[in-house]
Amino acid sequence: KFLSNSFRMVDLSMSFLKLIVISNRTKFSSEKRFNAGLSIIELKNKLELITGALTPNMELQILDENEKLVCNLNDDGAFLSSYPIMDGMYLNVLDKAYRSDLEESEPVEHFAISDESYSKRDDTVRSFLQKNRFGKYNEEAMAAKQKELEAQLEAEKVYASKLMVGNRCKVTVKDQPNKIGSIQFIGVVSFKPGVWVGVQYDEPVGKNDGSVEGKRYFTCPPKYGAFVKPTSVEMGDFPEEDLQMDEDEF
């Protein structure tokens, strides 16, 4: 098991829920954080990338530490926070279309439908999203989000323009102890959008060696490197000091 014998009850006003995602498609599990304000249909869309199951084929269940059923997430329009969920519970993703290797050995007749025909149906996930203006079908929300992202990127560029590679710095992340190091990289990266600052810490309290997902941005010893947002970096003549591990860096 991946959990302790006790759960922490989540205040539904909190932003995120920590759940263990399991599925009949795989033997593996993973702990993920989900925004409690997500609708179930939005949650299913995110789970497509995690499990490989398609949204229309999903049935979602919440299980306790003994994998006993707590509830079914069967209302696509309901919010995740409206269900009796606690941190550390299992989110079981059942793919109704999935067949095991043994089952796949049997002949299966596959059903195919053209995109044009699919668009004309009113009982599909796409139709549901369009009618309820979820996700990309809410043009106003998408436009507002795009403007917010653009404004954030411009702010990051302004902060980044005041930083210089090679200078000493202090990294401040909310609810985490400060860290001291030197700036080794400033720019865009392939693993996250926006502008990032690569820092080599004075102590092995980082996340990497200056490379992420096989791409190198700078070089430092393992666990001494980290990437943080420009707004978290302050240049100055900072002395070395012992710091603690930060769980919110990449």
Automatic annotation (TrEMBL):
Transmembrane segments: none annotated. CDD domains: Ubl_TBCB (cd01789). Keywords: Chaperone, Cytoplasm. Pfam families: CAP_GLY, Ubiquitin_2. It is found in: Cytoplasm. One of its GO terms (biological process) is cytoplasmic microtubule organization. InterPro entries: CAP-Gly_dom_sf, CAP-Gly_domain, TBCB_Ubl, Ubiquitin-like_dom, Ubiquitin-like_domsf. GO terms for molecular function: alpha-tubulin binding; microtubule plus-end binding. One of its GO terms (cellular component) is nucleus. Residues 187-229 form the CAP-Gly domain. Belongs to the TBCB family. The keyword Cytoplasm applies. Gene3D superfamilies: CAP Gly-rich-like domain, Phosphatidylinositol 3-kinase Catalytic Subunit, Chain A, domain 1. It comes from the Eukaryota. This is CAP-Gly domain-containing protein. PANTHER family: DYNACTIN 1-RELATED MICROTUBULE-BINDING, TUBULIN-FOLDING COFACTOR B. It comes from Argulus foliaceus.
